[in-house]
Hints:
Layout: H1 7-22, H2 29-47, E1 60-61, E2 73-81, E3 85-95, E4 98-107, H3 117-134, E5 142-148, E6 152-156, E7 159-162, H4 179-190, E8 195-201, H5 203-214, E9 218-224, E10 228-235, E11 251-255, H6 273-280, H7 291-294, H8 296-312, H9 323-326, H10 333-341, H11 348-356, H12 364-396, E12 400-406, H13 408-412, H14 416-427, E13 433-438, H15 442-458
Parallel strand pairs: 2-5, 5-8, 9-12, 12-13
Antiparallel strand pairs: 1-11, 2-3, 3-4, 6-7, 9-10, 10-11
Helix pairs in contact: 1-12, 2-12, 3-4, 5-15, 8-10, 8-12, 10-12, 12-14
Amino acid sequence: MPKQDFSQYVIEANCRIVKDICKPFILNDDIYMRIKDLFLLEVKKGLGKYTHKNASVKCFMTFVEKMPSGCERGKFLALELGGDVCRVLCINLQGDEDFKVDWQNFDIPINIKEDTARHFFDFLAKCLSDFVNKYDLQYDELSLGFTFAFPLKQIGINKGILVTWTKGYNVPGVVGNDVIDLLQQAIDRRGDIPIKEIVILNNTTGTLISCGWKYREAKIGVVISTGCNMCYLEKTKHIHLFKNVANRSPTMVINCESGAFGNDGILDFMRTSIDFTVDKNSTHPGKQIFEKMVAGLYLGEIVRLTVLECINAGAMLKGIVTNEILTPMTFKTLDMTQIEAEQENNFIVARKIFKKLGYTEATNGDCENLRYICATISTRSANLVAACLACLVERIGDPYLIIGADGSVYRSYPNYPTLLSYRLRKLVRPECKFDVVQAEDGSGRGAALLAASTRKRRN
């Protein structure tokens, strides 16, 4: 009697185990609706005079009271800081939506992220100096828009106090201090950068401004990259904490700092054991809880821990645990992007990544399971972001608006924009119409536009 082939049975059984382990990441619409409602409560707390202090979603003022007019002219610098790269741009605005951009990326050394404040800002000043000299801008009188993608309490358009570091940064001597002042000191130490004025903004605000230059209906900005954050145009009459100050314009852009949503435990009901582990092992435990479930810095680590759980359950890679799979942050969000971008039933990239993790004999079943894990976790990310955006769409209440979106995850992850828009349309009330538009040139152009509009107002 011939032997019975149990291989297909084993593959299917392993697949069931993997899907069972992934179940906590799959949430229904009721849960996303609850998250939307909780986010609204937090936004109201952040805007409130007596509740702001204890709000996880801080809703900081940006002092950006309106979108650019489209009539801005001249050359303006922008400096973007937020992930592993510092980006310097020069934007020559020629009006009528016409502009020219020169830009250069500078890799940020790992040690700089934890160096002294002086060395950190000296590094940024050197990046500016190198760029200015490369593009022969040393004889121009320039304004600079500084995109600083960390929680920032702004006191004005030219002054911002760092609340806390995120995204793996931990430079001492910066928290509680004015970031503009620290950068200006570094520029003055060099003496070779012709900066007349510096304005500061969050990268999410820059994304909204960039989008608003082209689309009058732009009211919300979102960045899903190394971190995640949102901003929106709020009526100043609702900004109770700042009522005595914010009365010059009927609206102002609010920087939500939505990455901290859940810091108070309000999202613990839907967090998985793996989410708690990622937070515990992070640079800043207990902070940026929402961000740690959706952003590029953490998605790969969530996948690694999920794969490890599947291996320990005997459902993947013959139950073998390598040193590489045990090493935190070895699996990157870029790996997820490449795996999901690969055609179905084609596992060349998946096997290459498995090899990096110490596995040379991964089966097709292992590769399929890895792709499923990546898809499940990336989908949850898009859905969670959509739940918070749905709250902002309804809060603004316009019959039609545009959401400006940017960030490496949004731009590069396969189907991420589609997943985000799909969930948004399911969560938003039918009478609220919207479109999600990728912001051109990201927050850099927005920073330069803010510098341009600020100079225009003061001239």
